[in-house]
Amino acid sequence: MTSPEPSSWTYTVSVRSLCEFTAKRGDLDRRFTPSATALEGQAGQMAVIARRSPGYETELPLQGQHGHLRVRGRADGFEADVNRLEEIKTIRGPVEIIPENRRALHWAQLETYGALIAADRGLAELELALVYVDADTQHETVLRETVAAPALQAAFEARCRAFEAWAAQEAGHRAARDEALAQLPFPLGELRPGQRLLAEAVYRATAHGRCLLAQAPTGIGKTLGTLYPLLRAMPSRQLDKIGYMTCKGTGRIMALDALQALREATPGRHLRALTLVAKEQACEHPTLACHGDACPLARGFYDRLPAAREEAVRTAWLDPSAQRRIALQHGICPYYLGQELLRWADVVVGDVHHAFDPHGQLFNLAQSQDWRLALLVDEAHNLVDRARAMYSATLSLQSVRDTLPQAPKPMRPTLRRLARELATLAGAQPAAYQAFAEVPEALADALQLVNAALGEHMQNHPLENGPLMQFYFETLSLQRVLDKFGEHSLCDLERGAATARAAAPAEPRAAVPVNLSLLDDDPDHAEDTGPALPDGADVLLSIRNIVPGAFLRQRFEGLHSATLFSATLGPADYQRDLLGLPEDTAWIDVPAPFPPEHLSVRVADRLSTRYEHREASLDALVAVLARQFEEHPGNYLAFFSSFDYLDKAAARLARRHPSVPQWSQSRAMGEAARRAFLDRFVPDGRGIGFAVLGGAFAEGVDLPGTRLIGAFIATLGLPPVSPLQEQIRERLDGLFGADHGYADLVPGMQKVVQAAGRVLRSVDDRGWVWLLDRRYRRPEVRALLPAWWQL
Question: Are 11-166 and 183-251+347-391+548-593 in the same CATH fold?
Answer without folding.
Answer: no
